[in-house]
Amino acid sequence: MEISSRGRRAAYIALAIVQVTVLGLADWLTGVEISFSIFYLIPVSVAAWFTGRSMGLIMSLLSAATWFANDALIGGHAYSHPLIPVWNAFMRFGVFSIVTVILSRLGVALESERRAHQELDLSYAALDELRKQQLLLKDQILSNVSHELRTPLTAVHQFVTILLDGLAGELEPEQREYLEIALKNVDQLSRMIQDLLDATRADAGKLTLQPRPMELCEVVAEVMRTLRSRAAESGISLEAELPADLPAVHADPARVRQVLINLVDNAIKFTQPGGRACVSASLAQPGFVCVAVSDTGRGMAPQVQSKLFQRLYQENASSTSSRQGLGLGLYISRELVSRQGGRMWVESQPGRGSTFFFTLPIAEAFETPGGRKPE
Predict the structure, then answer these.
(1) Most buried residue, 131, 185, 204, 329, by most Cβ within 10 Å?
(2) List of long-range contacts for 86-91, beta carbons under 8 Å, 24+ apart
């Protein structure tokens, strides 16, 4: 840490004046054994640490000269040889110089390390800012593209539905089959676009929720009716096991339905024909209902479970279904649950199926003054 400003030079000059006058005089007046450390070594160390090696060496020379004056001239000590005080002064100068070099190098090393850490922090900050800008740009592009795609996709859905309803004339069985395939893929694409929009809104904190007291059994029954035919086509038994006295929950029915459809759809997709998928619910911790969606599918390894709720994550393992998504369903589902005061997690073992859990607050907890959410 070499001198780099007039302020440091002024500080050195003041320290040198103190050293030669005040500390040297104090050494002569006290004459104690510890005066070497107090009046010489400490000032030299301070000068070397704060002002650098050059000024530290000058301070060492001044300190050795001051000590020589106090010892040989002012103090009037008697020595067997007149060169002994000179030799002692040179020895002390050597000690002061060694201390100066060590402290100045240590100071330079610490300063270099500090600057390196600062540069590294700046690099990390720049990378983090670049990452945020890239994510923002990506989300803006996804949002714009999704909005632009919804209009023509809605038109395709409407016209395919018109044809299937026979409003444009009778259809041959083969034509109806092709149109049903087209409609199924249009619906799948619509869900993907909706997932993109929801993921973008979740990142921006703009997911719309309208929580209110709702009966969970009614939403589960609606989800069962929606997906029962798809489960039957896949040869999977779809069941619901909910107690009759299950209390109402405080949540957005449309968003709870979205979460359940995603979880049950995954259970069907990753379960072999002849398997079983089940939706159940029970009272969890005080103030919450716990919903579980279980299956008898292939299960997941722990390393897969740790990444499952990440955005855009998709398991690489082969699936019995050719249907593929964007890897956003579970990410969005967990966001929807957490924003309604609950949490979501999974328990699974390879070859023994999986169970996804999520909690929702009981509606009675919101009837307290102020409508506070349960802890």
Answers:
(1) 329
(2) 89/64, 89/65, 90/64
Give residues with Cβ within 8 angstroms of 333, minimum separation 6.
258, 259, 262, 263, 344, 358
**Global model pTM greater than 0.70:** no
Encode the chain (375 residues) as per-residue pLDDT tens digits: 444 556 666 666 666 666 555 555 555 555 544 455 555 666 777 777 776 777 777 777 777 777 676 666 555 555 666 666 677 777 777 777 787 778 777 877 887 888 888 888 888 888 888 877 876 776 677 667 666 777 787 888 888 888 888 888 888 888 888 888 888 888 778 777 777 777 777 776 777 788 999 999 999 999 999 899 889 988 999 999 999 889 999 999 999 999 999 999 989 988 999 999 999 999 877 889 999 999 998 888 888 887 888 877 666 544 444 445 667 888 889 989 998 999 999 999 888 899 999 999 998 866 554 444 444
Amino acid identity, residue 16?
A
Query: Can you tell me which residue has the tokens 């409609």?
Result: 183
Which residue ranges make up each domain of the chain? 6-124, 212-367
For residue 308 the two structure tokens come to 């499952």
Of the candidates 286, 317, 323, the residue with the CA atom closest to the CA atom of residue 304:
317
The residue type at 345: W
Region 212-367: CATH code: 3.30.565.10
Name 80's Cβ contacts closer than 8 Å, sequence gap at least 6. none
Asked whether the beta carbons of 210 and 338 are under 8 A apart, the reply is no
Q: Residues 186, 224: contact at Cβ < 8 Å? A: no
Look up residue 324 and give its two tokens: 């593929």
Which amino acid is it at 294?
S
